[in-house]
Input
Amino acid sequence: MNTFMFYGPWNNTELFGYMPIFVLIFAAVAILCLRKKNVQIWFWTILAVFAFILVLGDNTPFYKLAYQVPGYNMFRAPGRNWYEVHFALSILFAFGLNAIIGANKEKREKFFKAAIKTSVVIGVLAVATIIVLFSLRPIMIQFLGTDIVLPNFVYTLNDIAEYFVRNMNFTNPAVYIPIIIILLCIIWCIFGKKSGWTRVTSGIFAGILLINIFYYGHWVYGAPTQPPVETPVLSYLKEEGGDANQYRIYPMDDQPGVSPMGNMINKLNVINTYSTVPMRDYATLTGLSSFVADDPELLVSRVNLLSAMGVKYIVTNNSEYKEFIKSVYPSYSEGNNLVGDSDGWDILTGEFLQDSFKLESGEDNYSLMQTEIPLKKYTNYKISFLAKGITDVQMFADLFAEGYDQHAQQLDISVAQSDDFERYSFTLNSGDCPSRVMLRIGIQGLGAVEVMDVSLRELVPNETAAYEKVFEDEEGNTIYYNPQWVNRAHFATEILPVSDIEEVNTAFSPLSDIDPQTQALVEGIDQTENMGNGSVLQEDYSDADAPKFKVYIDGQKGFFVLSDTYYTGWEVYVDGVQTTIYKTNGIMRGVFVEGEGEHTIEFRFVPGSFYKGLVVTFIALGGLIAVVFLQRRKNGKKTN
Output
């Protein structure tokens, strides 16, 4: 059994196209023998050729033209056009096979002659290819140990040579099995020409086809019985993590066996995955518009949000992330103001007033005031100032130095025209900063604003760090434990009203006083309410579409929170009676449970789109049956 796949350590759904030999043979029969009688043969042939050209990507001039087509240029993986190639050839295969099954002796011999010629050509090409590849084997051996990376290639010459040399040997089933299958196809075609389409020939045909499909799945792509990757990180999570259904993991970078996508094999819950396509509110709250967060450090600093999401562990191998994680604390005290008096400020297109600064955009639609301040690396700071809009204006405040200008160090705010000052504040972590930076406050676009009482204060931690390092392997993969994590299913004793995701996002800002272990932000309620204590007695996640819980309420009313995604189509039943699901913490589900004592809670996913699609399917199927029935009646009348 081969150790390496022909196309390297990658996913065959991305780059690889494969069709059983019989599909190619009978598709060729359809093209050679039926193209003049059936215009559909031309359509599917052109589609297969066209899609194959797209598969080649930017290796052909045609793809560069196709990229100019609106809509199509949004697709990022040209190798996925193998789907259209496979589909078109499958249709041609069906035409060719159907023609042979229903043909008389004369036509059948013609079709089988075309099949024999095609199978022989395929066999000759396969043998010639193997001979050429084996002749290159001594050359590829010379490249072993060469670390040169070719242009537009992911792998080094050593990688390519290693895969090539290990595969190109006659003991590899991926070499000799295809030749055997092609020979079997040739023999079957010769036998079929003489005997026609009988039970024996059809049985042999099915057997060869199944062997061919099994060969691809077992020897070319890798045996499905191979065990999943086992890593020290994965071993720790399995041995020390407890019930994986109750918590989640935030892998900040690629962690084999955990993420991307390894979590599904190992039954671990993560908050991000490969090429994520998250819902809008989820992306807004977490910044996870892809596998890597838009601002990973900001997400880690939102301890209350990760805790509410049930994140028990953070895993990373990135040294900068590790330094940042060590600098995150759950609460702080404010230190001295690092901003001096007005003499230390420079101002562009504005003026100094008696106790404040006036910023007014000029011809460049831009105005700025700045002062130099000392800064410590990986330290938390709070920026605060009063602002009054002379007109409606867009403002920003940030820290800036050459090579140091990140989104995490900037606050963007809208200031409305007003007669009164309003205070604006935000916290940030300095990260890997220089020793002195510029604190800048400015406006973008037309407008004017008055600013005063600017401060920047170091936040001195009151407690131990928010995350505890519990494991590190030899390669530097490190696991941090979040002591404040909240069980995936839990009760909140205080519910707070919010109106939308933006309000939730603000409430979960770093260093906010939201306590996810006792509080929940709920849309659709009018006022803050205190709830009775509740406990989860049993949790059943065996059916992802219908998780079930047994709970106990110590009081007349409790609020149950499940930190799974809030989405249209979910229903909930408390003691068998359907009730309302409340959007909780912006992205989760919340349910009121009334009455002291034990209760059962069952969620069910019943998407309306599924039933609408089912109705359309049955209507279309009924229409198809009606058309076939009427066509047969019409043909029967013509025969009579």
